[in-house]
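Students often ask why we bother predicting the structure of a whole assembly rather than each chain alone. The short answer is interfaces. A chain on its own may look different once its partners are present, and contacts between molecules only exist in the joint model. In this exercise we take two input lines together and write out one structure for the complete complex. Read the inputs first and try to guess which parts will touch.
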Amino acid sequence: MTPLVALVRKEVAILFGSPMAWLTLTGVALVTALLFFDHLRLYNQILFLYASTNMGGFETDTVPVYVNLRDQVFLPVMETLALTLIGLVPLVTMRVFAEERARGTDELLATTLLTPNQIVLGKFLATWLFVVLMLGLSFVYPATSVVRAGLGLPHLLAVYLGLFGLGIALASVGLACSAFTANQLLAAISAYAVAFVFYDFRWTASFAPEPVARFLDAISLHPRFGAFAEGLVRLGDMVYFAGYALVALALARFSLEQARVR
Amino acid sequence: MESDEGDAGAPARAGASVQAVELTRRFGDHVALDAVSLQITAGESFALLGANGAGKTTFIRLVTGYLVPSSGEVRVDGISPVTDARAVNARVGFVAETSRLYSELGVRSFLRFAAGARGLRGEAARHAVARALGSFDLESVASRLIGHLSKGFQQRVSLAQAFLHDPSLLIVDEPTSGLDPAQQAEVRRLLRDVRGRRTVLLCTHDLGEARELTERVAVLHRGRQIALGPTAEVLGGADPLRLFRGEPEAAA
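Now the answer. The structure tokens for the assembled complex follow.
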């Protein structure tokens, strides 16, 4: 076992030793199920209305094109799941570095053969694994859309690639925030602040000069995820999410170095 | 008392040497360690003594590379932890205070992690963990969570992880802090057993512990080194507690 693998295993063990991880996983599974069935109920009610007004029973020709499983159930559920990630991911990331500092185990890590780069990478890898598991749990109900709505597996995979990118970006921001403090609450609050501010800058379009608004839109998380939700897999969007992760890695690494010389 | 002589005439012993030259560390305006110079020879048991806030922990953090000196330098076997922390850490076994463990991990899991993080793999790692569990009487609690153990057992776990990679320099920070008398005696016995087989740097404010476990001692007061020499000589005065008040002469 290399030092990096040992660290990842330790991080995963500690992550699953914490009730917060299980609460988060339960939260994701619950939210996805509730959202899916709620939207499905609404969709069925709309269909019933169309069927009732025609008096002759269900006639698919009379149902507008936009009333379909994809637009009424699948996409809204995925949009809300993306917002749910913002709410839940910082709860998992807040402790990763902050707790080590608070209880002094960062000193223990510093006396092993792990380099600061490996410490940062190991903690990020373990957290990203958790994000993958979290999204895996949410996969069951949307997957039924593939079967029932003829959505197509490529579209579903595109959406999950977008969710994965978003999850990685949010987790990376959360980890960077955790690396700068020994206070878990502060780590979570700052991660929420960054995530919500960067989620969608389109509200600035009404008053910001056009180049600024365009730039802010370009660095927003939501439009990037929106493209994946539409089934579009673009290299630029993937690079964007990877850029978030790299900047966060660099910031976390910087904070470790600062701790040595502060 | 400020002589800095090791066992110059004695045969070479196993262990790493530590050399600090004008070692200084500031935190903003506060000088935590002020131009400390000392040498610890291979195989020596050495105590850093001083009241809380004297600079003992800062010194060991500089030795392990956890902190970078503001000025001066420290070397372990001639290697600077600033430029090559990995090479230094390969030689160092570090025992922090009791609470600095992962309370949510089991004892065996923690030791496996510690072995892996120190570069031990496969059979070597399994053997090192089994040996540590046996040597520190931890087999009966190997599956229990560290957070559920008594402080005495936690300190044994802390000692066990420090020995996994057979370090040539053992750095022990306040090893008996917060332990009951029986647990203190147990930890001291474990530390006594390793004397001579590796270099021991013991950081303590307990005079009895320093007398019992070390050959030489340096006394720090508010970051300054106020005494250095054989333990029996430095702590042999009528009122050695004066050292904690920054009055070296009276104890000499």
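Check your guess against this: Chain B has nine helices and nine strands.
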